[in-house]
Amino acid sequence: MNQEVILKGPVKGLGAEADLVRVKPGYARNYLFPRGLATPVNAASKRQIESLKKRRSEREVAEAAATQEKAAKLAKLSLAFELNRLRKVRKSCSGRLPRRRSRRL
Question: 37: closest CA among 57, 51, 21?
């Protein structure tokens, strides 16, 4: 009783652009179709899959290039951490350290 739809863009938990997925008719009718996230499967939409797959591959190539660029920038960075051991301790008037109180629930 499921309906086949073609996703026009990525849908969280369902699929990516140009994926052919099976969903409940109510989900497709009430959520996917009104928001323009999917189209029903028919002869014309099957031809549309090719253009969507082309767009998807172009986007993935662009994202991969951007990721490589960011990785190259991060590879050039160097971080150094310094541990500062000096610690201020609050003392009472008598010069003693304050007592730790246990927490009771």
Answer: 21
CB atoms inside a 10 Å sphere around CB 35:
11
pLDDT in tens, 35-83: 999 999 988 888 778 888 888 889 899 999 999 999 999 999 888 888 7
Give dist(CA 60, CA 11) in Å, integer.
16
Phi/psi at 8 (5° precision): -90, -20
In whole angstroms, how far apart are CA 15 and each of 5, 24, 34, 73, 76? 11, 15, 18, 31, 35
pTM of the model: 0.53
82 belongs to a structural domain:
no
Examine residue 29 and state whether it is found in any structural domain, yes or no.
yes
- Domain annotation covers residue 83: no
Domain count, the chain: 1
